[in-house]
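Tutorial handout. Part one gives the primary structure; part two gives the three-dimensional structure as tokens.
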Amino acid sequence: MASPAPRTPATSALPTSPTASSPRSRETSPSKIPVRVNSKRVAVPELKAALERAVRAKGTHYSNILAFSVYWDDDNTLAKEDNQTFIAMMRDMFDVPCETFVLQSKSPIPAWDLTLQLIKAIKAKLKNQKPSLLVFSYAGHGVINYLDELYFSSRNRKKLVSWSTVQSDLTPHGLAMDLFAILDCCHSGSATTGSPNSTHVLAACGAPVWARSRTSGISFTERVARAIRPIFNSGQVSISTEEIFHAVQKETPAGAYMSRFSSHSGAKLIILPFKVAATSGSGISSSGASSSGLKSSPRPSLPSSLPLRPHNRETQVLVMLTLEGKATEVVRDFQKVIETMPAKFQIKITDAFETNASAGVFVRMTWEAFARLLSTVNMEPLLPIIGPSLVGAQLREVRTIPAREKLPFRERPQRKE
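Part two.
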């Protein structure tokens, strides 16, 4: 597990900022990461339209899929093993070859090195304008500055690579390429994007969390691979990023950080087809250092040392919505809206309260439904929940223990006048 990392001071002169280190700098639009819905009131008709857009969203058949994995050479969080897990996952279940880039902590500008390699990999794979998908993985240390901007950090934190620089390289303008990023690092939930292409980010933890999860010896990257495996074995032909998030949340071990999912730039689904042929691609490795001395190693395999948890206690997510208008009326109208939702995206009202000129409504839904609706509805998970509400459950009677002896009641002596 990564050790707590201090915040990096906010400054425009960081050595790995886009203007200082990247061979090409881009202006990006403001972040589209979802904000807390309970910070503003939402009218029911507006919410209804947003829910309908999310439910009607369709996926794209990708002509090209590229996988790219990154970690630091001086890493001390077992990121190299996570890289091997990611390679095996993409090869064994999706038949997608993966290119690995090792950031060099002694490089003057490691962000520049990464940008050049990303450009090379994208150009080599995407030789046409057909719809393409890039699956990106990073494992290791992560820090944020005082603007909550994410940086990939070397072990000693002397070298940083800005996520804003990386994501601009991962989603080049003018190319029909979507992005699915799996970030296994501290503060990974703070990753944002301004790309016009569809971008889904699966993060190991929220923005304020210091350490990436390695609960019971299992990292977040390994949890992702383990969660996908049963779905692959079931014979399903493809899987969406939302289904991956749902599967990961179902298998969250006790004590692990709650992973985060963010959807940017529209309601379009990102769907990965499972491998159907017997053959599979091989991993391709590249590094910021010379690769002439690299030796071949056995093909990595998916981790299988610990069994998956049973599915008999599936978790859902609790969310609060603030509906504008007269409380009793908007709650009734919202109930009618969610009754028409498809079974896969059912929302259930657990409680509702009248507030000042609005209604605060607590709802529960599956993690897959939550991830889908994030594309059109701004909301934040309150907490994962298991089973029904405990308020209505019959409380167990607690047996009282009798005192050893009954002391007689004695009146306090009256003070003489």
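Part three, for discussion. The mean pLDDT is 77. The chain is about 25% helix and 25% strand.
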